[in-house]
Every structure is written in C-alpha cells, then in structure tokens.
Amino acid sequence: MIGAAVLLIVLVVVIVSVAGGGGDDDTSTTRAASGGGTATSSDSGREAGRAETLVLGQYRAPTGKIGNPYVQASDALVSDGLHELVYEALFYVNYQTGRTEPWLATGYEYSDDNRTVTLRLRDDVRWADGTPFSSRDVVYTMEQILKARAPFRAANIQGAVRSIRALSPTEVQIDLRAPNPRFVDSELSSYVYTANFIPLPEHVFRGEDFETFAFYDLARGLPMGTGPYRLTEVTASAATLQRDDDWWAARAGFSELPAPRRVVYTSPGPEDSAVAGLESSQLDYAGQSVPSVAGFIAARERNPKLVNWDGDLGWLDPCPFALTINTTRRPWDDAELRWALNASLDKEQFSRLFNTPGEPTAARTTFPEYPQLSALIDENEDLLATYPTLDHDLERAAQIFESKGYRRENGVWTKDGEPLSLALNLFSPAALGPVWGDAAQLLNQQLREAGIAVDLQPGDFNTVAATRADGRFDAQSWFECGSVTDPWATLNRYTHAPGNDNAGRWRNAEYDRLVAQMGELTPGDPRIGELYAQAMEIWLRELPVIPLNQRPTPIVMNQTYWENWPTADNGYTQPAPFGMNFHQVITRLQPAGDGQ
Amino acid sequence: MAETDLTPVASPAGTLAEAAGIARPREPRRWRSPQLVLGLLLFLSPLILSLLARLLVGQEDTEIFAFDPKTKPSADHLLGTDGSGRDVLAVMIYSTAPTFQMAIVAGLAGTVVGTAAGIVSGYFRGPADTAVRGISDVMLGIPAFAMLILVAAVMGDLSLIGLALVIALFSWPLVARAVRSQVLTLREQPFVTISRLSNRSAASIMTFELLPNLVTFVTAMFVGAISGALAIAIGLQLIGLGPIDTQTLGLALQNALSAGALSQGLWWWWLPPAALLILFFLGLFLVSLAVDEIANPRLRKAGRNG
Amino acid sequence: MTLDYALRRIAFFFVVVWITVTAMFFLVHLAPGDPITDQVTRMQASGQALSAGPELIEEYRRQFGLDKPLLEQYVDYVKELAQGNLGYSVTNFPTRVTTLIGDALPWTLGLLATAMVLSWVVGSLLGGLMAWRSTPAFARGLMSSVMLFAAIPYYLVALLLLYVFAYELQILPTGGARDPLGTSGGPFAAVLDTFEHALLPGLSIVLAFTGFFMLGMRSMMVSVLGSDHLLLAEAKGLPERRIFLRYAMRTAILPQVTTLAIYMGYVVSGSILVEVLFSYPGLGKVLVSAVDARDYPVIQGVVLMMVVTTAGALLILDLLYPLIDPRIRYGRD
C-alpha cells in the first residue's frame, strides 16, 4: 500500500519536473536563424546591450504569430511593433503639423473630379530580403484587398476603389468609385491605427491564400517589410526586433539609421508594475493604458528623467470621451432635455478624475483638440457662447425640467408619477481601466444631485458594444474617434452615411446635407470653415452626444537611455504607441548624452 | 474536498467529514472555547463597529472628491483619503456591511440548499439520492472559478446579491455531499430507527431527529461556505469583475490596486481593506476550528496537552 | 464488477466534461456580444467610419460559422471536439487554440504543480509534527502561525509579499515570467531568472497550501495517535522517531495523498488569480483575455482543459484508490 502511494508520488514528481522544465525553456520561443532567409544579416552576432536597446511597454502582452495585417486578428500587430517598425506606410499623417508626409511614396495627384489618384513611389525602396519594392507590390496588395471577401483593416478601401493599375514601376493609378478627396489621407496613410494600407511583398505572397496566409515564420524572415527592423524573437513576455543595418532609407541617404540596435516590446503589466518599470528604467516608454497621470508623477519623483507629453498633461488621444444619447428614446429624444443633462454634469470633476491633477481638459466638442482642429473651434467660439457645453448649471437644468412639466419629489424630477430616469450604460473597470469604476460613481453622484434617477448598467467592452448596436440605452459612455486634422470625419460620425457608427440614431437632413457637401471639398479648402460653422450650429443645438473629456493620455518617455522624444515643445510628430507613426519617432531618437 | 477550485481558502470543514465520524446524538457540547470567542470577536466586531460608526460618519464622505485626494492619515482623516478623494475610513465603514451581507447570503444559500439536498438524498436513498449525487458530482467536476469569471463578465450589471447566489450555485454540492454522508450513518442509529418504526412522517424525522444532530456539522459547513464565498467574490473583484455600484471591501481593494496604490506608496489606501479582510478570514478560520473541535473532541485534547 | 465500476466511472467522467462543455458553449454564445462584433466595433470605435462595417461582420460571422443556428453550431462544435479539434482563435486567427494553450500550459503547470507538491511535503510533515505530543510547545506555536495562512486567500498573501519584496525592498520582479530583455550568461542565468519571477507567486501558493495540508495531516494524526497499533508500538518501547515515521505518519499520509491528487487536478483551474496578479503568462491569463474578447473557441478550449484536469484527477484517483487501499471496495458509497 505504501509502495503504491510512493509510486503515485514519484509519478507526480516526474510529471511536475517535466512540466517545470517545459516552463524553463519556453516552447513558444522561436529564434530566427541568424540571417536566415534574408540576404543581408544586420546584427553581426553581438547582442545589443541595454544602452543600445529600446524597451517599450505596450498595452498588451505580445501575441504574435500573425504577420498578415488583413486577417482580422488586428491588435496583435500593434503590440509586436510590426505595424510601426517592420512595415512602412506610403504616407505618414502628422497630427501636429497636419501634413501628410510622403514615405514609400513621393507624392500623389488627384484628377479634377477627385475620382482618380495617381501615386508616385520611390525607386530605391527594398524589402528586408533585398528584393526591390515597386508598384507591383502596391498593385498586388490592393487587388487582393479588392478580391478579398472581408479584408479586415481595408474594408473601406474595398468599398472606395474601383480598380488599380501600374503605370510604371514607380507609378500607380487608382480609380475610385466616387469622388473622394480624402482617400489618400484616410486610407493610404497612417491616419488612425486600425484602417490603413500596408503594402505587402508580392514575391512572398505569390501562391498563398491572401486571406488565410499568416505571413509568419521567423526562420524564413517573415513577417517581412521594408522597415528598419526585423522581428527576431517572440516569447510569452516580449517581442524582440533587431535593426536591419542595410535598411533602404539609410542606404539611400533618405534617413539616418535609427539609433537603437534592438527594440523590445513588452507588456508593462498593471499600473503598479508599469510605474516600477519606469522608475527603475527597465522601461523606456509606456503609454495609452498605464501608467495613469498620478503614476507618472509618482515615478518621476524617483526618476527625474521621465517626461510626459506636456508637463503633467498627457497627449490627447484622438478619441475624446463622450456620452452618446439614444435620441429615439423618450424623454431624451427632446434636445432641451439633453441640454439639461449636459448642464447637470460637472465636467471639471471628470477632468480631475481622468487627469489628476493636471490642467482641466473638459471637452468642448467631440473633436480631439489637435492644433488644426483646436484653431477651428476657437474661430467659432461664438457658437460655444450660445451653446455653452462646458457650463455646469443646475439651475438651468432645473428650469428646463420644470418647463417640461417635471416636479421635484424626494429629490427626483417626476412627471405623471414617473421619475425622470436615465439608463446609463458604462464601461466597467474591466473594459477600459479602473477609472471607469470611479467615473460610474461620479456620474451617479452628479446626476442624483441633479434629480435624475440613474439606472447604472456597467458592462465590459463587448457588452457595451452589443448594447450600442441594439440601442438599448438612454446614455452610453463611448469615445468619439474621427478627425485629426480636417473636421469632416468627426462631423460625419453623426450623419446617416452608410456604415456609420451613429449609435444615437440622431437624424437631421440639413446637417447631413452640409456634411456631405464638406466631404466633396479637399481638406484645406476655405469653404470648409463656413460649412463647419453651419453644421456645428445644428449639432450644438441638438446635442446628440454630450462631450465629456478630451482624454489626455499619459505617454511616459524615459530619457535615461534615449533622448529627443516627441513632446509638446519638440512636437515633431505624435508620440502615440499605436498607429504607424512610431516609425517617425524611432528614427529621431538619440542615445542619451551622459552615456548611461 | 473540491473546495479549492471554488475557494483558495482551506476550511477544516472538509476534514471534518473524514475525522468526525458519527456525531453522537444530543451530547452536551463545549461551545465556550476561547478560539470560538476570539474568532467571533474578530469576525463580528468590525461589522458591529462599522454599523455604529455610520451614526458618526456620513455616506457623503465616500463620494468622489468629497476631500482632497491622497492625503495622509491625520486627525481629520484617520486613514487618509484615496486617489479619488474618498475618506478611506468612511469607505471601510460603508463597505463592511454589504461585504458581509454578500458573504452571508452566499454561505446561507449554499448551506441551506446543500443541507436540504443532503438530508433528502441520504434519508430516502433511491432516485432522489441518485439525482442529488449525480448533480453534485457533476458540479464538483466543473471548474467553478472559470465559470464564475465568465458569468460575471457577461453579466456586467450583476448585483451583489446576484453574485452571492451565483457563487452559492457552485458551493451547495459540496455541502450536500458532506451532509449526505453524515445522514447515511445517522439514519442507521437506533434513535432514528425507532422513530421510523413508530410511523412518524419522514419530514418530521428529518426535521426533528436528523437536523438537530447535524447542527454542529452544518455550522462548520456554513462557516466554510461564508469564507469560501468571500474569497471568491474578492477574487472576482480583483480581476475587475463583479458589481461596482455597491461599496464593498473587494471593490475598495480593487480600486486601490488598479490605481497604483502599491507603487505610489499609498499604503493607507490598500492596506486597511486588505487587513480587514484578513481579520475576517482569520476570525472565520478560528470559528471553524472551534466548531471542528466541538464536533470532534479528540482534536481538542490533542491541541491542548503536551 | 470491477470492470463494470471502472467503465461507469469513466462514463461519468465524460458526462462531466460534456455537461461543462455544453454549459460553457451556451453561456458564451448567449451572452451579449460576439468576437466579430467586438473586433469590428473596436476598429470602428478607434478608426473612422467603416462604410462596409455590417458586411464585414456578416462575412466574418459566416467564415467562423457564427451565422448558423446556435444548435447547429453546437453540433458542429461537439463533432469537431470528438475529433480532437479545438479550432482556431477568432482574435488571433489563424492561430490554433491548441497553440495558444500549448504556449501557456507549461507556465501554469510549472508554477502551480511545483508549488502544490512543495506545500504538500512541508505541510504533511509539519502537520504530523504538530499533532505529535513530544513536539516542543514553542515549535507547535510557530507551526500554528503557519497554519493561519491557510485561513487567508492566497491572493491577499500575494499582495503583502508583492508590496514588501517587489515594491518596498525591490529585490524581486513585480510580475511576468522572465526578464523581457532576456538574460546573458548561459542557461543557468535563464533558469535563475525564471526562478526569480516564479518565487513570489509560488511562495504565496506554498504558504496558503502548506497550512491547508497541515490541517488535514494534523486531524488525521490525531485519529491515528489514539489507535491501537500505535499504543502497541509505544508499549513495545520503540524509539520515538521510529514510531513517528513508521507508525504514525505512514498511516496518516494516505488520505493526504488523496487530497494532493485532487488538488493537482485543480492546479490548472486554480491558477487564474495568481496569474492575473503577477502577469504570469499561463492559462488563466489566456482565459481572462479570451473572455474579454469573447473569443469563443479559446474560452471553450481553456475551460475544456480545466474540466479535463479537475474531473480527470478525480477519475484517476477513483480508479487507483482501490489499488492503493485494499480496504476500499469498488463501488464504494
């Protein structure tokens, strides 16, 4: 009997040691054979030291194993650095200057009717394996997108493009289905992080099924791009990229070789470990979800080399927070009541919550206040004087409620025995971070004080998204992405253009007409300002969405090892961890002067 | 025995089933053990104090931006304020009772259902037994915490009591199984056999003969179920799941941890709820140890002498 | 009879697995939201207007078979499962669910199983000593304090450990399984690095479960100590050490083996919280992020793994138990 027991124990111990051993040499590790599958081997054997390494804390642990940006496993790319450092864009949109900067392309021209675009490409670009990049790759990628049943991040391209053809190895002509002066900016550039055109190497894809090919085999040098780095290792804790010293742009003298020889994308972990990582300079960069402003300030006390975008103030995310109101549900279908709701909210407090203890960042409108858009809002300040979205004014709210026949009973506005209630569908802390737990309580607090009975319905992202699609809410927390330089995209969110995320179901024919008219104008056209004022007049009067916060996002950059980070004073581009623009950052980083 | 998956907390109740053997009918029990007194004190005094303190501290102190955020403990705020300007002590005062309520409801629901099922199953045998055993065995095989994560994630607006009932759904089988095995031995005891022969109804035998003899045992299960439910609920809240519209200690702890109280050195934010929870668990543990010894006097002797 | 019992027991195992899998299937599919809507909404939410949004959702739902009636999806799923096919992750398509699980499982097993066995060995020994009458009183007092850890959920212990060792003293990492920068200095440094990262999560589990196993061992020892064969051994005047190890521990350890076996089954499903707290890249992390993204095939795959290990451990135990302890007959009550 003891014999059997011992046997069982031995068995367990053996299993455990096998399993434990498996834990030690991580099975998910795939090391690329040095120079395997590539014509040029960049890192001549020597491991880059810490001072030559850039360590980025991304908001998600690397998942890897997919290189094809058009299968729908999208976010994996963002956290492995593929999007930013391995692939390159035809153009980079700079939120700060508002310019569309050519990269793989040299320029473009629209036909007079805005239906045809002619792209000119560089002639000195090479893929990482040395094969020249040409119009063949662009045409191949675009044609596959057009043929695909569902090209994940390029569905808009599929809808917009009729055909594409190569005019020469460096010239491509794209025929559009409808006039679209924003096509290059929004579809062929690094406009926002999810939807853009990434050229793929035709010579690698040839013979593969475009829609299911993972494009991922580190030993073969896949995923392959034209960028300055190659992905060489992915483990459960980090994705490592090595610099390609033969990068085309350096050889062509178009750009300096980026300084970091090695880049490691890793998860910063939760708030506390992100702060610890930045403090100890294990991390050179962390942003988007962690740390919070408070975490940044605490970390900076112990590591003065840390900087944020603008002092304590984070970089403004392109998607401000707002409350979407379902304008088809009574009583909130009444614009005046929506204004009463707006006046019931103390947005300063939300600003404090999202941005402790930085400057106030309550949102005037749902536009992210990048320089171009901020200027536009300022030019039309009289609109905001008429429609003061920032005013917290309980008296005004009370007047409106009273004028609509409500009486305050036991602290709650009541009409015909029915209390004024608001089904408030909110992100839960699990969905979008801990601050939403407090945001829920704060909204509840403020609205209760204003006499509105709140029915709080927190949900994770998925539940909120499903509720949004069905319209089962009176008000819902959401983020309003759209414009970054030109006002059309945000305005267009609230129209009935097909596929629009108009979850509030607001409808105004005059507004739709004005926005459609703006859509036909080239960005920068002087008539846009006038149309903006007219459309915003309607929007503000009706207030289908209540702007809440501009959403400053701490992007913490560490100057211990690397300098020349983009900050408000040195705003050469946006510092976002997402989107392809980090490419523009890494080529400008310099090793820290005092030679750590 | 399958408790860990549900609860990482050990409860002596599990071992009780093996070690206790047959509970002797109507034996005078030694309820006045120091462990029991200390356990109940640890467990109940925070609750009573918190209810009394509600008279002194208003709920408005738990509102966001009631005060300046992150002030150190001082005479004004004995435990300081948290990252969103709530008074930490006030938050503790207003979270204790709901936390208790949740744990007790979950423990009670699991124990009552489990005991009823266990008695019926053990007394009648036959199809009722097969059904109860089948269901509880299946339930014990299911990875409960994983299921609870899913349930809590997809039901974002689950209330505190709802959460308690969902937890009870996974804890009753354990009780049922243990009670059943006790009943199996009890029903063969002479006093039960005599009752049966004297034509008393089954319901009356179960209620008046079996149940009183199970009191100690069921109490031990109940205590275990409370601490199990508490452990699970707090665990879910640490992942960011569970209700956010009621102040609870788990929510306070989650707030502190996710906002970076550890790395910012704001010990007065995370430590008090954690410490209070630890007190609860220790109190419950002592109570269950004491109940365990009452049911199994030999343990008591061994614990004492030497 | 024997074979009959074994077969019934095995059949029961499959019933448990089937019921869990079924419950899980309907729970995740009937919940609001689905992985496709989630992804497309995320894209739409963080991008510009997606004119082809609805079509895209329809197409992907078709590709993953989510457009079929739920019952048909269920039948398909069970059919595939019977052939051992767990399918593809939706959020990480075209990565297979088995790949995701295979990457995470060694971490979970390595951490949890090692910790569990360690706490079993220490806990049994201490539990035995605690009930042993010639153990000095101060040692016994010390042991009772270890036992108190059994009362506290391990995540609270983990929290205290994290604060002290990772944030205040800063001598151990705050999370993760390995240094993201890798280690230089050969395999030994890599093992050391892995060990360093596993220390705090491992320790919190060991503390909690040592106390738990102590409790069980102590109460077993108490029953054993009063038994006749031990009294006999004492009467024979055998050396104390010998009586403790050969007579008392040996008898009391058997139920402990049972408990360990059962707990080994919970290793996989019990890992979730520890992995979340320490950002440990195991199965629990996979599950939590899959739940967040409603990645049906991954959720189903991970839960399947969990139920197979929990119910599997019980099955193996029930089948082996009669071999270990002849007093137990088959078909025990």
UniProtKB/TrEMBL annotation, chain B:
Keyword Transmembrane helix included in the entry's annotation: yes
Domain spans labelled ABC transmembrane type-1: 96-290
Domain of life: Bacteria
Keywords: Membrane, Transmembrane, Transmembrane helix, Transport
Subcellular location per the Swiss-Prot or TrEMBL entry: Cell membrane; Membrane
Pfam family name, one: BPD_transp_1
Residue spans crossing the bilayer: 36-57, 100-123, 135-154, 160-179, 214-239, 267-291
Gene3D superfamilies associated with the record: MetI-like
InterPro entries found in the cross-reference section: MetI-like, MetI-like_sf
Bilayer disposition of the protein: Multi-pass membrane protein
Family stated for the protein in its record: Belongs to the binding-protein-dependent transport system permease family.
Name of the protein this chain belongs to: ABC transporter permease
Organism: Conexibacter stalactiti
Lineage: Bacteria, Bacillati, Actinomycetota, Thermoleophilia, Solirubrobacterales
UniProtKB/TrEMBL annotation, chain C:
Ranges for domain ABC transmembrane type-1: 105-317
Presence of keyword NADP: no
Organism name: Conexibacter stalactiti
Name of the protein: ABC transporter permease
Keywords: Cell membrane, Membrane, Transmembrane, Transmembrane helix, Transport
Major place of residence: membrane
Transmembrane annotation, as ranges: 12-31, 107-132, 144-166, 198-217, 252-278, 298-324
Membrane topology of the entry: Multi-pass membrane protein
Xref: Pfam families: BPD_transp_1, BPD_transp_1_N
Compartment(s) where it occurs, according to its Swiss-Prot or TrEMBL record: Cell membrane
Entry similarity comment: Belongs to the binding-protein-dependent transport system permease family.
